[in-house]
Amino acid sequence: MITEKYDIIVVGGGHAGAEAAAAGANLGSKTLLITMNLQTIAQMSCNPAMGGIAKGQIVREIDALGGYSGIVTDTTMIQFKMLNQSKGPAMWSPRAQSDRMRFAEKWRLMLENTPNLDFYQDMVNGLLVENNKVVGVKTSLGNKIYGKSVILTNGTFLNGLMHIGEKQLGGGRMGEIKSTGITEQLVDLGFDAGRMKTGTPPRVDGRSLDYSKMEEQKGDENPQKFSHTNTPKLTKQRSCHITYTNIDVHDALREGFDKSPMFNGAIKSTGPRYCPSIEDKINRFAERNRHQIFVEPEGWDTVEVYVNGFSTSLPMETQYNAIKLIPGFENVKFFRPGYAIEYDYFPPTQLKLTLETKLIENLYFAGQINGTTGYEEAASQGLIAGINAHNKVNEKEEFILKRNEAYIGVLIDDLVTKGTEEPYRMFTSRAEYRLLLRQDNADERLTPLGYKLGLASKERMDTLESKTKLTNELINQVNEYSVSPEEINNYLKEKESKELNQKLKLKNVITRPNIKLEEVIKVIDEDKNSFNYPEEIIELAEIKIKYEGYIRKEQDNVDKLYRLENIKIPDSFDYNKLNSITTEAKQKLNKIKPKTIGQASRISGVSPSDVNVLLIHLGR
Q: Is the pTM of this model over 0.85?
């Protein structure tokens, strides 16, 4: 039925698949997005939110490169918060509560309005492979669809198995069938496969909750955005709420432990360390009398509520009996119970840094198939896979982000170099250069790269250049302006900061703790003529002024360490001839086949002395 040969075939319509399809098509490749259900494109399978610690930086980076996630989030969010503002700017992370239905709808409409992109609903149950090169896909309806490259973004659908107590249901998401055939073929082709687990909490009827017994959590007074385009600013917000479990809740949950698939051996795979189920939490942290529960609305108009913090695979009766004991949930009505899901993944050390597989040419993996967790991590991989699939079929150079350039670079380097045996989640602590990788400068770091690729528009570059110009102007003004004691001392006294005895450069005042440039401007420039800049510019200028020395030191460290990244290792290099390195190092180097000395140095089991031996053999 489908006779056209595509440049890129994207399998799966989740966050990774959506970004991969958008990137490939926008770069000019004839792209096909094939998924089992076109009604669930970019479905938020778990919590209705985007961003969070380190994840918010990833969304900003996707947007800066020309992806869609930031735009979709801005146009469908119902609440915005900047997390970690009590800490330094490297830790600030934007997070949005989203309208689940409108989020998926916006994604679908944006994709439908993307040139070069076709859609088809069917299950892909096999790959067409010739001479270790993928040439297309096979579907459950018997179609053979040919393409120059294939990107697999199967999420939790590969042999998905859901658990609710002792009940087991085949499927990739509640109400949707599992995907079969691909894992078995890939294993036959020589790939290593594994199993992972994730879980999701009950969804409940918000009309049955008593919010007066909970703590209201409002959004920021001045909500920001994710996208650097002209997306609408959030003018009204919906509140979330917080409540807590208690000893009675924990006792009720324990009554179902004998039927828990986590404890009776039914679930054998590894779950996410940083998002454990409620039964795992009360088992591992038995000394705690309560755990936080975030009550999150699913959208502007729906009454459906997501019970964040109560992820579970216990029997439905146990879930219900326990959740009723949480303050505010006494009369709760379920929309659906929580459940756990096991699915196939492929250890990501089998990939190149472009996300192309090492075994099969032009075959790419992105998202949970690589062992990651989270919409944001998946979307960023889809974007990179889409870019590289396009570049490969058009004989252009590969696109790889370094660890000092983006959290996306840290994510992919961690996966490919170190691998993962549990669902990988991004944190700011995983990035050694996080002061350079702030959420506020994602466009500075990546929009020029996106523009060079052809993915970020000229309009984005113009916006960036204007922002850079204004920021530099303000920094120069602050550096040159001398502030008098009469202008500033009342403010300094309020802030319990040492008062001035004479005029001082404003820069020296701004670098003091607890002193905010925005507040100082209001004090010294009542008419707002001298320092008339947008809030975004003022915030960015303040960060650059306050942290100038730290940023320069971190950049110096990057320059020193990245000399190793410029020392390339030939693909044909024979590590077995290195008699002076350990057997473990040989095995790991042969398996990973690092592209550079820098990547080799980050492989677990490769010591500094092994790296020195490698340098000598490369003539360094």
A: yes
Asked if 364 and 150 touch (Cβ cutoff 8 Å), the reply is yes
Check which CATH number belongs to the domain holding 501 and give it: 1.10.10.1800
The answer to the question of residue 220 being in a domain is no
Residues 518 and 589 in one domain: no
- The yes-or-no verdict on residue 212 having pLDDT over 80 is yes
Selection from 455, 464, 465 nearest residue 67 by Cα: 455
CATH code, domain with 605: 1.10.150.570
DSSP code at position 174: T
Q: Are residues 546 and 407 in the same domain?
A: no
Of the candidates 381, 375, 363, the one whose C-alpha atom is nearest the C-alpha of residue 189 is 363
- Residue 252, Cα to own-chain centre: how many angstroms? 35
Closest of 529, 528, 492, 536 to residue 510, by C-alpha: 492
Concatenating the DSSP letter of every residue in 262-294 gives TTSSS--SB--TTS--HHHHHHHTTT-S--EEE
Check if the beta carbon of residue 42 is closer than 8 Å to that of residue 69: no
* Among candidate residues 560, 593, 609, the one where a domain is terminated: 560
Contact 361, 133 (CB under 8 A): yes
- Amino acid, res. 144: K
Query: What one-character-per-residue DSSP string does 499-539 give?
Result: PPSS-EEHHHHHTSTT--HHHHHHHH-TT-SSS---HHHHH
DSSP string, 321-388: HHHTTSTT-TT--EEE--EEEEEEE--GGGB-TTSBBSSSBTEEE-SGGGTB-SHHHHHHHHHHHHHH
How far apart are the C-alpha atoms of 520 and 530, rounded to whole Å? 12
pLDDT digits (tens, 9 = 90+) for 298-353: 999 999 999 999 999 999 999 999 999 999 999 999 999 999 999 999 999 999 99
Under 8 Å between Cβ of 3 and 13? no
Q: Which residue has the higher pLDDT, 268 or 300?
A: 300
Please return the burial class of 525, using the count of CB atoms within 10 Å of its CB with bins 0-12, 13-18 and 19+: middle
Lookup: tokens for 606: 């490769």
The amino acid present at 186, given as its one-letter code, is L
What is the separation of C-alpha 47 from the centre of its chain, rounded to a whole number of angstroms? 14
Check pLDDT > 70 for residue 528.
Answer: no
| Residues with Cβ within 8 Å of residue 537, at least 6 apart in sequence | 467, 470, 471, 474
C-alpha–C-alpha distance, residues 71 and 229, integer Å: 8
Burial 153-175 (b: 16+ CB within 10 A, else e): bbbbbbbbbbbbbeeeeebbbbe
| Residue listed under structure tokens 């000598």 | 616
Domain-terminating residue out of 514, 529, 560:
560
DSSP per residue, 33-68: EEES-GGGTT---S-SEEE-TTHHHHHHHHHHHT-S
